[in-house]
Design brief:
Elements: H1 3-15, E1 20-23, H2 29-41, E2 44-52, E3 58-65, H3 69-81, H4 106-121, H5 128-145, H6 151-185, E4 189-192, E5 198-201
Antiparallel strand pairs: 1-3, 2-3, 4-5
Helix pairs in contact: 2-4, 4-6, 5-6
């Protein structure tokens, strides 16, 4: 899908003043963050993100309509400044016909990219049960290999796979920890959602309700 179609599709949702806007560019979290930044200029706020689609090729971002008065002021100013957005005109925060952020929007897009990446990685960070299953699979593999290989080869193969699991778990946790620190440094607050997962919210924001991210 072209850049113009991505932008036009999102702005059509916004024009209908939907309470929830769905953004799903192909693959890249950077593209998703750029579109999320545009949605913010039209009075929306980041809700959540996850991977979906064939082979998890889509980064799905959910934006919620911000009910605060400042959001409506921001929306009105954006509409006035970019009357042809979605029809070939300029788009707030992005270069013409591109999802590359303008210099003044780079920092804001980077923060959104961290929020999106943090949420998306939750699908791949192993909890205790996942680790147990992974190491159990290594043990089963070792037993299977014992059928037609020497004990040394079987144990070595199973151990190598277990080592790969361990490295992957640690690298993922380390990367997510660094993102969490950047979000904390940027003023976001760590909270737990209903499933016990960690999320980051801006000051004054609460976990999304059905249509209102500030609802109790």
């Amino acid at each position: 899908m072209s850049v113009e179609r991505h932008i036009a599709g999102m702005l059509q949702q916004i024009a209908r003043q939907q309470d929830v806007v769905e953004i799903a560019p192909q693959g890249s979290t950077a593209k998703a963050a750029a579109l999320a930044h545009v949605a913010e200029q039209y009075g929306y706020t980041y809700g959540m993100a996850y991977r979906t689609g064939f082979k998890n090729s889509l980064v799905q971002v959910r934006m919620y309509r911000d009910p605060q008065p400042g959001a409506r002021v921001r929306e009105a100013a954006t509409i006035t400044a970019h009357p042809q957005a979605g029809n070939g005109g300029t788009v707030p925060g992005l270069e013409q016909s591109s999802l590359k952020p303008l210099p003044e929007a780079v920092a804001a897009v980077a923060v959104l990219k961290d929020l999106i990446t943090f949420d998306v990685m939750a699908q791949y960070i192993a909890d205790r049960s996942q680790k147990v299953k992974g190491y159990l699979a290594c043990a089963v593999l070792t037993v299977i290999l014992l059928v037609d290989r020497s004990p040394v080869e079987a144990v070595a193969s199973g151990g190598a796979v277990a080592l790969l699991f361990t490295v992957a778990f640690k690298v993922g946790a380390s990367r997510r920890g660094k993102i969490a620190q950047r979000l904390t440094d940027a003023g976001f607050l760590a909270v737990r959602d209903e499933q016990g997962g960690q999320r980051f919210l801006s000051p004054g924001q609460q976990l999304p309700g059905h249509t209102n991210p500030f609802a109790a």
